[in-house]
Design a protein that fits this description.
A hairpin with a 2-residue loop joins strand 1 and strand 2. The chain has a single domain, classed as Farnesyl Diphosphate Synthase (Orthogonal Bundle), CATH 1.10.600. The protein has a two-stranded antiparallel sheet with strand order 1-2. Helix 2 crosses helix 4. It is globular, with a radius of gyration of 20 Å. The chain contains 17 helices and 2 strands. The two termini are about 35 Å apart.
Length: about 350
Amino acid sequence: MPDKNISFYLRKINPVDKIAHYNQLFTEYLQQNTRVPEPKNLYEPIDYILKLGGKRIRPILTLIGAEIFGATPEEALPAALAIEIFHNFSLVHDDIMDAAPLRRGKDTVHTKWDTNTGILSGDAMLIQAYQCFEIYDAKLFSQLVKLFSNTALEVCEGQQYDIDFETRNDVSTNEYLKMITYKTSVLVGCAFQMGAIIANQTKEAQKEIYKYGKLLGIAFQIQDDYLDAFGDPETFGKQVGGDIIENKKTFLFLKAKELGNSSQKEQLHQLFSNKDQVDTNGKITITKQIFNESGASEATKKAIQEYTEQAFEVAKKLDIPNESKEMLINFGTYLMNRRV
C-alpha cells in the first residue's frame, strides 16, 4: 500500500492525540446515533451506560484497523458503534451476574434501576448492535455479521467459563487463558478485523490483524485483573478488589497458588472458599499481601509484558507501511501503560 494512502492522523499526530482524535470522532457519532424513544424505561438505561464514558478502546480499534489498511475511519464508524454497544451490553449483564455496584465510578444499570430493567435493556442493546451493520452493502454486511456473531458467542462462552471457575479449586493457567481469550481478547481481535474487512483486505491480512488484537487483548485482560487488585480506586472506575470478593480465579490467584508456600496456598483456599464473608476489606488486604509475597504480582506483570511483545512481533510482520506498524506498537504501548 503506498504511503499516500495513510491518513494525516496516522502520519503526523502523537499516539495520545491520535487516540483523542479517534475518541472524539467516535463519541460525536455515538451522540448522533443514540436516542431515547418510548418506552423510556427501556432506552434510558441504554443511553446511560453508553454515555458513562470510558476510553472507548474497542471502537477505537475498529477505526485504527480500517485506517492502517487504507480506509477512512468514518467508513468504520457504524461497525465501531456495534462493537461499543455489544461491549456495554455484556457489561450490563456481567454486572448483574457479579452483583457489582459500580461501573466507571457510577452506579451500575441494575443498581440505578433494577435487575429486570438491566436484563431487558441489555437484550435490546444486543439487537441494536446488529442493526448498526445494516448501513453496509450485502458483501460487507455478510462478512461483518459472521465475524460478529462468532465473536459474540465466544464472549458468552468465556463468561460461562468465568462463572464456572468461581466454584472450582482446580483451575489451570491454560484454562484461565482460554477463558480470557474468549471473554475479552476475541472482541479486541474482532474490532481490528472489522476495520480490515471494511478496508477490503485479504483473508490473510484479516487473520494477522486479528491475531495482533487477540494477543494484545490477553495482555489487556491480565492487566485488568492486576489493576482490579492493585489499581487506584479513584481512577480505576470499578470496585477495587471486586475479583477477590467474587472468588475469581485470575492470573494473580493462579500464580499465587503455583508460587506460594503451603501456608499461603492454604490461606488462599480458605479465603476463596467463602463468597459471603462479612469482612471483605480484610479478605482483599490479606489476598493482596499473598499476591505480593508469593511473587504472583511480579509474575503477572511479566506475563503482561510477554503477551504485549508477542503482539508487537505480529504487528512488525504485517504488510503495511512502517508508519502504520509504528501506530499499532505505540497504541499497544499506550494501552499497557494505563492505570485505569
